Amino acid sequence: MAVSRSRTAVYARRRKRRMAQHTHDLSDEQWAALAAEWQGCAYCGASDRPLQRDCVQPISRGGRYTLANVVPACGSCNASKSNDEVTSWLRRKQLDERAFLLRHREIGVALALRFPAPDAASD
Ligand SMILES: [Zn+2]
C-alpha cells in the first residue's frame, strides 16, 4: 500500500493517531462512575435509553475523551449537539444551562478525587 506524503494525508494520520490515544483516556471504570453520577443524559435527564460518551468540549474544539470532558448523553442530545459549543447549544435547546454547568462541576470535582490524574503533565 502506497503511503501518501501529502500534507493533508500527514495531518489526517496525525489526527487519527491522536484520536486513537484520546479514545483510551477515559477508562471503563471512569465511564461507569460518570454514568452512575449523572443517572441519565447530562443534558436532558433522559434515563430510559442507552447513553453515549459525549465530549462537552468537542474534539474539533480541542476537547478530549477525558474524565473531566466526557458526560453521558442520549443519542438525541449527542446528535443534536454535534460540534457545537455546549453553552450556546444548551441555550438554543432551552435546556437548563446553569444546572448543567453546576452539576458538571460538582461531579467533576468528586470524580477527580476518586480518580487522581496519574500524570498531570501529560498532553
Ligand atoms: Zn438527552
TrEMBL record:
Protein keywords: Endonuclease, Hydrolase, Nuclease
Cited Pfam families: HNH
Residues passing through the membrane, by range: none
Domain HNH nuclease: 29-79
GO molecular function terms attached to this record: endonuclease activity; nucleic acid binding; zinc ion binding
The UniProt record lists the keyword Hydrolase: yes
Protein name as catalogued: HNH endonuclease
Entry superkingdom: Bacteria
